[in-house]
Known about the structure:
Elements: H1 2-177, H2 179-184, H3 187-202, E1 208-217, E2 220-230, E3 236-243, H4 249-264, E4 272-279, H5 284-292, E5 296-301, E6 304-307
Parallel strand pairs: 3-4, 4-5
Antiparallel strand pairs: 1-2, 2-3, 5-6
Amino acid sequence: MSSTSEEVWQLLRELVRSQQETDRQLQETDRQIQEVKQMLREQNQETERLIREQTQETDRRFRELAEEAARQQQERAEADERYRQERAAEEERRAQEEERRKQEEERRAQARAAEEERQAQARAAEEERRRQEEERRMQARAAEEERRRQEEERRMQEEERRRREIDQQLKELGRQIGGLGAKFGSFTEGLALPSMERILRERFGMECVGPRVRRRKNGQEIEIDVLAYANSDRQAVYVVEVKSHPREEAIDQMKRLLQRFQEFFPEHQDKELYGILAAVSLPEALRQQILAEGLYVAQIDDEVFALDVPEDFQARSWS
């Protein structure tokens, strides 16, 4: 039993110690709470102080802004007043200047009206003179055009007469030369050969010139009226086709001949290839078509064939 009493007292002592420790902790907690409250009061005081300072600074800035705005407004008002006064003075000056300008313009208008009236009268007199002069020129031009028309008509009649004479002469000469026509294939080709040979040798530097050249290959045959070529520095070939009165299909025939040339004459494939169409009588429109294809044109001039190409003519190479 004594053991039990001792244990009870022991428990009581522990309870007392525990209570004391609890009281101590509560006191410590209360102290910490007081410290926190003190810190909060100090922070609140600092915050209030900062707020008061910021409020005072804001008020000060507002006052400064208000004063600056009032000052600027006053300056703008003064500037507006100065501008109004200056504008009024400028408008007055411009009104006076405009009045002077109107007076000067009126004076000039009167002077211009007088000058224009004088010039109108002078122009009317000049136009009348020019009208009479133009009428005289038109009459003279009409007379000249009528004279030229009659002259052109006579020239065309003369050309037609000469063409008929040439055709008649060609027929007559064809009957006379007989064997020569058989040798060159036709009289026209025989007539063209001497002058074309001279052109090919002297103008183009050809070394070999031959008439009526035929070449057969793979059962097909090609015939060239005049073939000329050079193997020296010139390295060129000229194919000449002779027609008495060529038509448009002669151009296509010449082009086909040039396009097939290297097939039948491969020994000349490294040379520049050119075409010449020689004609006894050739309309101007057909001549222009032949030149446009890059082909040379030769026509009879003073009973011999001569080249008939512009100075700036550029022949086409068919090689």
